[in-house]
Amino acid sequence: MTRAEDNASLVIEPLTVAAFAAFGDVIESAAAREIYPVNDGTAQRFHDLAEVDTSSKDGRTLISIFRAQPRQLPFAIRMLERHPLGSQAFIPLLGHPYLIAVSESLQQRPRVFLADRGQGVNYRRGTWHHPLIALNALSDFLVIDRGGGGHNCDEAELPVRYIIQEM
Q1: How confident is the model at residue 110 (pLDDT cuts 50, 70, 90)?
Q2: Most-buried pick from 6, 63, 78, 160 (CB within 10 A)?
Q3: 97 with 63: CB under 8 angstroms?
Q4: Cα 112 to chain center, whole Å?
C-alpha cells in the first residue's frame, strides 16, 4: 500500500521533438527530415519521421489498432513498461489529445508530455513508458511494433506513486 508521503506530482510538458529526443521520435509533419512531392504533385511526403526497430531476434513489424479508454486527471502512475527487442509507435487516428509518460530508468522521475494536433510518438527500444493515457474521449491509435519470438515486454512497479495533476 502506498502512503500519501510516497506520492510525487508530475508536471505536463508540451510534446516537442527536442524535449522527447531522449525517449524516441515525435511523429508529425513538422519533424520530417525531408519533404517532397508525390502522386504526380497532388500530395506531399513528410519523409523519415521515425526509426522503426523490430528486427532483433528474427522479429517482424506489426501494424495494429489499440482503442484506449479516456482517463481522468489527476491520474496516478504506479508502473512502467518497456520493450527490450523493438521500438513501439503510437499514431492517433482520431486526433484526440493524450498523455505520454516516459522515464530513462525506474529510479528517475517520469516526464509527462501532452500530445495534441495528431502528434504520434515512437518509443525507442528499451524506453520505459506508461501504457496509453487517452484524454477526453475513446481514442484509436495505429500501433507499429515488433512481433516474433523472445520476451519483449517488461513491466515494473515504481518505487514512488506519481500523480499527474490536472492541466
Answers
A1: very high
A2: 160
A3: no
A4: 10
At position 160, the amino acid (one-letter code) is V
Output the nine-digit C-alpha cell for 113: 508530455
Contacting residues for 52 by C-beta, under 8 A, at least 6 apart: 61, 87, 89, 122, 144
List the one residue out of 140, 24, 27 whose CA is nearest residue 82. 24
pLDDT of amino acid 167: 79
Cα-Cα-Cα-Cα dihedral sign, residues 47, 138, 101, 130 = negative
25 pLDDT above the threshold of 90: yes
- The residue written with cell numbers 512481433 in the block is 147
Q: What is the pTM of this model?
A: 0.91
Distance CA 84, CA 39 (A): 37
Give the residue among 111, 164, 163, 120 at the shortest CA–CA distance from 139: 120
Cβ atoms 112, 100 nearer than 8 A: yes
Helix (H, G, I), strand (E, B) or coil at 6: helix
Q: Tell me what percent of the residues of the chain surpass a pLDDT of 90.
A: 93
